[in-house]
Write a structure and sequence with these properties.
Elements: E1 41-46, H1 52-61, H2 63-66, E2 70-73, H3 84-94, E3 97-102, H4 104-108, H5 110-125, E4 130-135, H6 165-193
Parallel strand pairs: 1-2, 1-3, 3-4
Amino acid sequence: MRARALNPIKKSVAPPKAAAASRPTPKAAFPPKATSEKPEVRVFVSYSHRDADARARLETHLAPLKRDGVTTWFDGDLNAGDKLDTEISRALRNAHVFVGLLSPDYLASNYCWKIEYRRAMNRRANRTMQVVAVVVRPCDWKSTSAAGFKLLPEDGKKATRWRSADDAYLNVAQGIRRVVATVRKELASKAITSPARKRPAGPKAVSKSAIKPQSPRSPKTVIAGARTARPPAAKPRAGRRKP
């Protein structure tokens, strides 16, 4: 009988694994914001409390500027318990633009005219602040130091003399916008020209190879000024007396 030919057992060879496809880089949830943000401009509003309605109307017309990075401050922003002179002086010192609402009550107020307006003019003389005077009611501003500067509304025409109050305050808001644009240019130029402050360099790391091993001092080396220790006296051996 013929022996049946044994079929060789074929080992199942797994097909070569396909190279793992490179995963796509996940996209950022939000695109990076542009770094061309406008610098903040702070406006200090000086007014007599009898002209509170004029200040509120001006704030309404300055709303587009507030959305454009402009912050306004007046004494109504103070909290209960704040020191008036301290907080007002701080706000005036940090402001870029001073807006004074001229009226008979403003010129008669010692605090408004002699303190706030005078401090603003001193900063203007040092080129650290822009001063804008706005005539909200008829007053004798031509006999004051404000007469030598350009006032708002246009040509110092009182807000009450315009066809409508909105026309007058619109002209004031547009004039303040031009002043804000000038301040922003100055802030941007200072940011470019001022050198960046360098942080103080920390201690330099010393590599182990740079450290030279110090040779041990020989027992004969004597340090100047140091006392040499005396060797302890030998104890007598037991059974013998000292000579």
